[in-house]
Design a protein that fits this description.
The structure holds two protein chains of two kinds. Chain A is of the alpha/beta class. The radius of gyration of chain A is 24 Å and the shape is globular. Chain B is of the alpha+beta class. Chain B has eight helices and seven strands, in the order E-E-H-E-E-E-E-E-H-H-H-H-H-H-H. Chain B starts with a strand and ends with a helix. Chain B has a five-stranded mixed β-sheet with strand order 2-1-5-3-4. A two-stranded antiparallel ribbon of chain B has the order 6-7. The chains are: A alpha/beta, B alpha+beta.
Chain lengths: ~650, ~250
């Protein structure tokens, strides 16, 4: 038995009535906390990326006591900093017909009708305020010569609604949030704990009341208590070992909250980004993304003939296949990520891939350079070109870039309702760590939008309704002891196995397995194979792991081992989720469910739901809770970008 | 290819450190410098030794976590490059590579190549922001910014806070870091109300934290992975002086 059925989820707490006014009504109906009472309430925020940094800063501004945690040496280093392309907002500054409704519509469609209408509509509404907020903070977005903001286009949209700061939009937005946070740290409303990793959640009398953390420098394990806990710890794409995530990104915080009772939704939805630098060898530790915005001007092609090993310059126009422009004439190179990724895989599988190993396609700027001039192209994408050259030792001004899809973003995460509440009262989950807004696929430039929407605007507006019942009184000492003991025991076990394999070697093996069997394409046969292999790999981990050093010092091998232990459990749930969903949608492509042309075939009749999983024990069949999705404003149709 | 690396090993802040030689086989040209250290660390662990601790995270040159002295140069031989973006093809296998942590009084060594750079956070906390509350901002188009100003702001805003400027400076000064932030915010219209107090407060804080004074040696800009120009420091000095004149 893979899983058992649990009760359906009845209530997502979305206000009823017209979609356009739901958020306004929720904001009005949420209870407020009197400013004098806010300082008596403590909120823990784990993670300092766009979601966590902006949330901690805003809650601090509101006057709550905030404790902020991150594993990095400074909150400014959270991985949101690496997002290159841009952030969407329905400002219609380009005058090309954009609106809140159109952004909402594109996002629901882009997510392959597996997200909630009410959440996505709220995101689109809030998007315009995000740009205002960031500009006020001094985020140096690109400007026209008249001094107004410039925009560009991203995959899945035919309007120009993406605001950007060269290829470093994530960095600039994150610095904005970090500086807002720094201001609150200085004001004393936020206490910052860098180099501190959350290892468990404290649940007392049914409420999330704190976190058990390890100080990564001294190794000390301590508990911090609060009236509410907010997880903003990002995604779990590093389960694949090679991904575009930072090396430290992990699933530990949300996975251990899951083990404490928070449901985990749609774990199998992994976004594969089409525009990465291809893998070059076995030593590789991570993959580097080339911004999707490159597809504004770059043209994607492969040789028409399989096995054509001429250099790109020797292949005449007539013998090239600009396959995205051919297959999807109206969106061309700007089709959404899932579609572009799969198309790249298909041409490579057909033997037409380029570069070492044949796992690559060309992203060619020759036309853009001829049309706009080298200087204009350098002004738009120069830093990305330099980065490419540094990594590959090839000059993209002279020869086309080679790109291949890579794991980028996880749309699954802890289940939350409209108020960002998980199934554990008092535990809120925001940003990539929750599942809520992107459905089965995330459109470009919408992750930054969601992170900041949750942190600056949504969480601060909804958390008051929960905290209005606080302060919640003393925490059960047994709950704290039990959580702390569990953490110490796990650390001791990891250190005492003294086997003959490193955590890294297990991670590499798990990652390859997941990429092959639960990656861009999944089959029943492959997933069943993965589900046989993962538990035995996990067994081997607990028998053969070797971690040197002790727990009472800076020990990066120990940190890594704890994270890999959690990936080994999560991987199994991802495969169970992928196997049970016998349809293709967004970032989940089942070979058994495709059209004769090889496009994804969705099954709305049977799978128009969120799969929210309940933990029942390691290796035990999890319980599946359905949240039915209903569509009133956008009717699910076959996604066509032709 | 085979390389010899000479790595600084130091068990903790109070322990004494020393350089230890390691020979590493099977290094390929397209391996990054940190991937070469990964290979070494795998081997050390299997042999029962502690791996070399070093800070890193994004490995794409933007988070600012990595950074070591390689043959005496902050972030090594690459121009405008972080340590994670160096590739082994840039190194000569016949020469040993010396790897040491940033050395500056306000950056105590935590372990091996890891240093504590939280002093840079203290500088930002003392004024490196525009004071604005979430939800109260005017429409983004209400305040046009001339493109040259936006470009200057962006150029300065690209600072990743890695600390190479401090490590390279003979005085251990953080002026380039502080100047980058002061320039980023100080050239934008939104940043004007706090422009002078921001500059004054950040410079006072860096002095209090033990960073050295700036003598415009320019070593900082030579190693800066993001190419922050020395003119930023001139701007900061101008604003600090103006702050003094205004309060006088």
């Amino acid at each position: 038995m893979l899983y058992r059925e649990g009760d359906p989820i009845a209530d997502t707490r979305a206000p009823q009535g017209p979609l356009e006014t739901r958020w306004e009504r929720r904001r009005f109906s949420s209870r407020l906390v009197n400013p004098a009472n806010r300082r008596k309430l403590t909120v823990i925020v784990v993670g300092t990326g766009l979601a966590g940094g902006s949330a901690a800063a805003t809650l601090g501004e509101l006057g709550y006591n905030v404790l902020s945690f991150c594993y990095q040496d400074s909150p400014r280093r959270a991985h949101s900093i690496a997002a290159q392309g841009g952030i969407n907002a329905a400002k219609n500054y380009a005058g090309d017909g954009d609106s809140v409704h159109r952004l909402f519509h594109d996002t629901v469609k882009g997510g392959d009708f597996r997200s909630r209408e009410s959440n996505v509509h709220r995101l689109a509404e809030v998007s315009t305020s995000i740009i205002d907020q960031c500009v006020a903070q001094g985020v140096p977005f690109a400007r026209e010569y008249g001094g107004l903001l410039d925009t560009r286009s991203f995959g899945g949209a035919q309007v120009s609604r993406t605001f950007y700061a060269r290829g470093q939009t994530g960095q600039q937005l994150l610095l904005g949030a970090y500086q807002a946070l720094a201001r609150q740290i200085h004001a004393g409303t936020v206490r910052s704990h860098p180099r501190t990793e959350m290892l468990d959640l404290v649940v007392s009398q049914g409420r999330a009341r704190g976190v058990v953390v390890r100080d990564l420098v001294t190794g000390e394990v301590t508990t911090h208590l609060a009236d509410a806990v907010v997880l903003a710890t990002g995604g779990y794409g590093n389960v694949f070992h090679l991904s575009t995530n930072a090396k430290g990104c992990n699933t530990t915080a949300i996975w251990r909250a899951h083990k404490r009772g928070a449901l985990f939704a749609n774990p199998c939805y992994t976004q594969i980004h089409p525009t990465c630098i291809p893998v070059s060898g076995d030593h590789q530790s991570k993959l580097t993304l080339m911004s999707e915005s490159l597809r504004n001007d770059g043209r994607v092609w492969v040789p028409l003939q399989a096995g054509d090993d001429r250099t790109p310059g020797q292949i005449p126009e007539a013998e090239r296949d600009y396959y995205l422009e051919r297959m999807y004439p109206s969106f061309g190179n700007l089709v959404p990520r899932d579609i572009a990724s799969r198309a790249a895989k298909a041409v490579c599988d057909a033997g037409r891939g380029v570069g070492p190993g044949g796992l690559g396609v060309y992203l060619d700027f020759a036309d853009a350079i001829a049309r706009l001039g080298r200087d204009a192209v350098a002004a738009r994408y120069g830093n990305l070109f330099e980065m490419y050259q540094r990594i590959t030792d090839e000059d993209p001004y002279q020869v086309p870039m080679r790109i291949y899809p890579a794991v980028h973003y996880t749309m699954g995460g802890l289940w939350v309702d409209y108020d960002l509440r998980s199934t554990i009262p008092g535990l809120f989950v925001i940003g990539e760590a929750n599942f809520s807004d992107h459905g089965a696929n995330r459109l470009g430039a919408s992750a930054l939008m969601q992170g900041l929407a949750d942190g600056y605007f949504v969480l601060p507006a909804v958390i008051g309704d929960y905290l209005a019942d606080g302060p919640f009184g003393p925490v059960d000492a047994n709950a704290v002891d039990e959580a702390e003991d569990g953490v110490r025991e796990m650390i001791d076990t990891l250190l005492s196995i003294d086997g003959d394999r490193t955590a890294e070697s297990f991670h590499r093996e798990l990652g390859r397995l997941m990429w092959d069997l639960c990656g861009m394409e999944r089959s029943e046969e492959g997933l069943r194979k993965a589900l046989e292999r993962i538990p035995s790999l996990r067994d081997e981990f607990w028998r053969r792991l070797k971690v040197t050093g002790t727990g009472s010092e800076l020990n990066q091998a120990l940190e890594k081992a704890g994270r890999v232990a959690d990936f080994l459990e999560l991987a199994e749930l991802m495969c169970v989720d992928a196997l049970h969903r016998t349809e293709s949608c967004g970032g989940h492509f089942r070979v058994e469910s495709q059209t004769p042309e090889g496009d994804a075939r969705r099954d709305d009749e049977n799978f128009s739901y969120v799969a929210a999983w309940e933990f029942t024990g390691v290796g035990e069949p999890p319980a599946l809770h359905h949240e039915e999705l209903t569509f009133e404003a956008v009717s699910p149709t076959v996604r066509s970008y032709k | 290819m085979k390389y010899r690396v000479r790595v600084w090993r130091q068990a903790g802040p109070a322990a004494s450190g020393r350089l230890v030689d390691y020979d590493i086989d099977d290094v390929t040209a397209d391996m990054s410098f940190l991937e070469m250290l990964d290979v070494l660390n795998e081997r050390l662990q299997l042999e029962g030794d502690d791996p070399v601790a070093f800070d890193h995270d994004c490995r794409e040159g933007i988070c600012g976590a990595c950074g070591v002295m390689i043959d005496g140069v902050a972030h090594g031989p690459g121009k405008a490059t972080t340590t994670c973006q160096l590739h082994m093809r840039q190194f000569d296998p016949s020469q040993p590579i010396v790897v040491e942590p940033w050395r500056a009084a306000p950056f105590p060594v935590v372990r091996d190549l890891v240093v504590d750079r939280s002093a840079l956070d203290r500088v930002i906390e003392s004024g490196g922001y525009i004071s604005t509350r979430a939800g109260a901002a005017p429409d983004a188009h209400a305040l046009p910014v001339p493109k040259p100003d936006a470009d200057t702001a962006f150029e300065a805003a690209a600072c990743i806070g890695c600390g190479a400027c401090v490590a390279a400076c003979p005085n251990g000064s953080s002026m380039l870091f502080t100047a980058a932030k002061a320039t980023h915010l100080g050239v934008l219209p939104q940043g004007q109300p706090e422009r002078y107090t921001r500059a004054r407060d950040m410079v006072e804080t860096q002095d209090d934290l033990g960073f050295g004074g700036c003598t415009l040696t320019g070593e900082c800009t030579a190693v800066c992975p993001k190419g922050i120009p020395l003119t930023a420091i001139t701007r900061l000095n101008h604003d600090v002086l103006s702050a003094a004149m205004r309060s006088a």
